[in-house]
Amino acid sequence: MTERSNEEASESGELESKTNGNKVSFFKNSELIKAYSHGAALFVLPIAIAIITAWHNHLVEQAKIRHLEAESKAKIDHAIKENKAKLASEYIKLGIEILKESPSPDNRNLRTWAVDLINDYSDIKMSSEARRELVTVVTIAASESSSNRELVRPGHTRHQFKWQGDGSPGYSFEVERRDGEEWILVTGISTFRNSATVQVPMYTDLRWKAYSPKQNRSEVKWQRVIIESILRPVHEK
Hints:
Blueprint: H1 2-98, H2 108-120, H3 128-136, H4 144-148, E1 156-162, E2 171-179, E3 182-191, E4 195-201, E5 205-211, E6 223-227, E7 231-233
Antiparallel strand pairs: 1-4, 2-3, 2-5, 5-6, 6-7
């Protein structure tokens, strides 16, 4: 009986010893795991922060690039539009310069091209009748409005000349001044009305004439005037 009790006590001691040993081993392993985890965290965390920061910076840079691309595209589109508008303006000016010459059979093809040029580069298109009149009848030159915007030179004044119209859609108008035995051109314009306001020298012997495409320029008589505070006609001697 005593031997059996001793055996049981011995077995119980061995079991307790094993249990305590296992507990010690478990605690040691836990400490090792904690140490490894802490070390891994210290190693991985900076890398993770670096990766997240790099990705954030990458997204910011991509957004900047997209913004710059959109801004550059807008600037390029604006420059293209400006260049197209400038080109259209230059072509229209070229067409107007050509149409300053009076219509004749010799320049009919050139005037047709000038009218087509103006029409192509204008936002508002001309009717076929308007195009025909510009080619065959109407002369375009420096507009009166541009002359009226000029500063009046010393000894000059703006004066409106009027004449009897013949129903034509346009007229040519010329003013000359006398210089000794010669007549020198002061101004020459084309107008859609039967009047013209131009800048002329005062107290000077002048002559002027206006004629339509229906008339022969050489057959239209000059009218002599001197511009003072009031218009004074000069009778031919």
